[in-house]
Amino acid sequence: MGKFAALALTLLAAPLVLSAAEPAAGEPEAAAPVRWENWHAGNNVADVGSLQRGARNFMNYCIGCHSLKYLRYQRMGDDLEIPTEELNTNLVAPGSTNLDYIVTSMPATDAANWFGKTPPDLSLIARSRSPDYIYRFLKTFYSDPSRPTRSDNLAYPSTAMPAVLSDLEGVKAAVLGPTKMFDHFQTISPGNMSAEQFDGFVRDTVNFLDYVGDPAQVERRSIGLWVVLFLLLLSAFALALKKEYWKDVH
User: Is the separation of the CB atoms in 51 and 45 below 8 Å?
Assistant: First the structure.
């Protein structure tokens, strides 16, 4: 009887435990903390349209400080299927030609004076840091009046880079939870883009930087598939030839 009594008490207490865990009627449920560390870029370097938009984004918002010193304008135009006339008109920086490497016009000494350090070249940033890192970095700027740039970043704390995309995304604050850890963002002033539009903007930019780090990756992967098939076929012929030569020995 003691076991049945304990089971009965447990069943009676269960609704009380569940009701205690649920919010009271009319009380809003607390939103789950934003796990920005788990965000993924989900980019596709085979998407030429995305790469074209990413190139446009880089030339409009990044070339002022950052270079792509291992990539020429013309190589980018050929890979991204951009006509030379359009490339020269809309993407090649003033004073450069389509045969030049993509470098910023900002002097390194001025950059060091303004930002405390020279902005890095971004040619290999996707290979060294990963596309997911760039995606998280560009989406986790928040307002911080104590910083010289009036902003900071969750992915790279104390970054010298200002929130250059705030006119698109808007200005947001980082809200801390009860444990004084980051909980979620709160919009202070909206930007010119919706959240979905800005997310697409960032993904296209990340996609372009992923391409820049290895411009031949799509072609290499395509050729690699045929190479593997050829090697498998060659192995089959080699095995058949081996059996033919050794059949008399055995």
Answer: yes
The CATH number of the domain covering residues in 34-240: 1.10.760.10
pTM of the predicted model as reported, rounded to 2 decimal places? 0.78
d(CA 22, CA 82): 57
Tell me the C-alpha distance between 183 and 176, whole Å. 5
Which residue reads 């950052």 in tokens? 66
Please name the residue that has the structure tokens 């055995």. 250
Q: What are 76-132's pLDDT values in tens digits?
A: 999 999 999 999 999 999 899 999 999 999 998 898 888 888 999 999 999 999 999
Q: What are the extents of the domains in the chain? A: 34-240
